[in-house]
Write a structure and sequence with these properties.
The structure is a single chain. The protein is built from 18 helices and 22 strands. It starts with a strand and ends with a strand. It has 4 domains: 5-98 and 290-309, NAD(P)-binding Rossmann-like Domain (Rossmann fold, 3-Layer(aba) Sandwich); 101-280, 3-Layer(aba) Sandwich (Rossmann fold), CATH 3.40.50.720; 319-455, 60s Ribosomal Protein L30, Chain: A, CATH 3.30.1330.90; 456-530, 2-Layer Sandwich (Alpha-Beta Plaits), CATH 3.30.70.260. The protein is globular. By secondary structure, the chain is of the alpha/beta class.
Length: 530
């Protein structure tokens, strides 16, 4: 029987290549710097592919990879892999989460020290023949306030180092629980606009999502302390680079350091290059010998396990389950993820616990994959594209979210039911779903019986039960050209509190939401996008 063939298309540590080749069970080929057309020409003969960030595993490449079973990304993100195309072809996509945590944290902290003491600028000055001590007077970290934006693995490591330096550490993370913040000895700040004016130093460790793009824009930079220092080793696009240039020129921002950029490599004509109070490094966060070796070995071990033993580790596009279990729970994975995504949009961002209750026939199957799918949906906004079915439980632990499961033998009206309840300081919210035949449905919201499709745009109205309210809502929707696909009504008693759930063909705009809330009997409007 021929050996499985593995292509290493990007540089990884030699120990990683040695691990792949160990025992001669895999046929390993190393071809670096392949052009897209060259990769397309040879990919059809390989069963495994190892990449970092240079090689793009596009849909076209995956279509040509007729034998490919696994793609291993030696790093955290999988932006250069078309995961959807791979999933459709049944190709496992793996990454190496956590392999660069320490190296990135240390790099970010080194850059922070450099902004405080002008180390790169002073080095360049001395090497040019000068001895200019006055120009490079710095500031101490001791007793200064550091704002950490994002308290995942890397943000947590930064906090530990900053505390050791005697800094006051503030944290902004909409998903970090208060108890977790206390255990990390950081002060949890509720909003981005509240933390920024307090900081002498700001370091960023958030995923890049629609919500976090340009989180430091011109308006927020103007709210910072005069002379603040900013570090970004997370994602290009978290800072509006044009606004940062203006703030550095005006000295509103005394200094900044960037390891990531909106466009990489950084264009030669970028205005960032000409600023004396800006330190630039070429995406070196994970560039330590230890991190490079670690992710190289880790991805090699994962590729071997997948091709030789059929074992799946750190897959971003499928849970580690056998075929029999997958057949039993398959339809519930999509429902579970949708319920998690739904709940995350109606719950407070900062939740302490999430309970997952399985009832009826659900108790007859292994629900572990369903729990992971639920967590993936629930944590998507918090972790962006970095959260998947493999790392979701660990991510939940990082932000201090306690996960519990419970089971009931019967569920009354339903043969089976999945009910999620999120609890925080502001109270609890819940959602439940089941199947009508083979069709998924949301059947409870906050304990009230409803019926809605878990897809598209869902609008939830909390209103007083009175004649004419439904017609009023329909009229407003029509006036704003928003079509109602289906409607479900629920009330606790006649004239009491009611819940109106609408499946819509498009998302209501801010003006429509404002008009709905202007009706005194409508207490709240929540828009969920599935």
């Amino acid at each position: 029987m021929p050996k499985p063939k593995v292509l290493v298309a990007d540089p990884i540590a030699q120990r990683g290549i040695d691990e792949l080749s160990n025992g001669g069970l895999l046929d390993v080929t190393v071809k670096l710097g392949l052009k897209p057309e060259e990769l397309l020409a040879i990919i059809g003969e390989f069963h495994g592919l190892v990449v970092r960030s240079e090689t793009k595993a596009t849909a076209k490449v995956i279509e040509a990879a007729t034998k490919l079973k696994v793609i291993g990304r030696a790093g955290v993100g999988v932006d250069n892999v078309d995961v959807d195309a791979a999933t459709k072809r049944g190709i496992i996509v793996m990454n190496t989460p956590g392999g660069n945590t320490i190296s990135t944290a240390e790099h970010a902290f080194s850059l922070m020290v450099s902004t405080a003491r002008n180390i790169p600028q002073a080095d360049a000055s001395v090497k040019s023949g000068k001895w200019d001590r006055k120009t490079f007077v710095g500031v101490e970290l001791y007793n200064k306030t550091l704002a950490i934006l994002g308290m995942g693995r890397i943000g947590t490591e930064i906090a530990r180092r900053a505390i050791a330096f005697g800094m006051r550490v503030l944290a902004y993370d909409p998903y970090l629980s208060a108890s977790r913040a206390r255990s990390l000895q950081v002060e949890l700040i509720e909003s981005l606009d509240a933390i920024i004016p307090e900081a002498d130093f700001i370091t960023m460790h958030m995923p890049l999502t629609a919500e976090t793009k340009y989180m430091l824009n011109a308006e927020r930079l103007a709210k910072t302390k005069k002379g603040v220092r900013i570090v970004n080793c997370a994602r290009g696009g978290l800072i509006d680079e044009a606004a940062l240039v203006e703030a550095l020129n005006s000295k509103q921002v005394a200094a900044a350091a960037l390891d990531v950029f909106e466009t990489e490599p950084l264009p030669a004509d970028s205005p960032l290059r000409g600023l004396p109070n800006l330190i630039l490094t070429p995406h070196l966060g994970a560039s330590t010998a230890e991190a490079q070796e670690g992710v190289g070995i880790e991805v090699a071990e994962q590729i071997r396990a997948a091709l030789l033993q059929g074992e799946i580790r750190n897959a971003v596009n499928m849970p580690s389950i056998d075929a029999k279990t997958l057949a039993a729970v398959g339809p519930h994975l999509a429902l579970g993820e949708k319920l998690g995504l739904f709940l995350s949009q109606i719950a407070a961002k900062r939740c302490d616990s999430l309970n997952i209750n399985f009832s009826g026939k659900m108790n007859e199957v292994d629900t572990t994959p369903i729990t992971r799918a639920i967590l993936t949906g629930f944590l998507r906004a918090a972790g962006g594209g970095d959260v998947n079915v493999v790392n979701a439980p660990a991510f939940a632990e990082t932000i201090g979210l306690k996960i519990t499961e419970s089971r009931e033998s019967s569920v009354g009206d339903f043969a089976e039911l999945i009910e999620l309840t999120a609890t925080g300081e502001s109270g609890w919210v819940s959602v439940a779903g089941t199947f009508f035949g083979s069709t998924p449905r949301i059947v409870k919201i906050n304990g009230q019986h409803v019926e809605a499709k878990p897809e598209g745009v869902v609008c939830i109205l909390e209103n007083r039960d009175r004649p004419g309210i439904v017609g009023h809502v329909g009229t407003l929707m029509g006036r704003h050209s928003v079509n109602i696909a289906s409607m479900s009504l629920s009330r606790n008693e006649a004239g009491g509190s009611a819940l109106t759930v609408l499946n819509l063909d498009s998302a209501p705009g801010a003006a429509l939401v404002k008009e709905l809330l202007a009706e005194g009997d409508i207490k709240s409007v929540q828009i969920v996008q599935l």
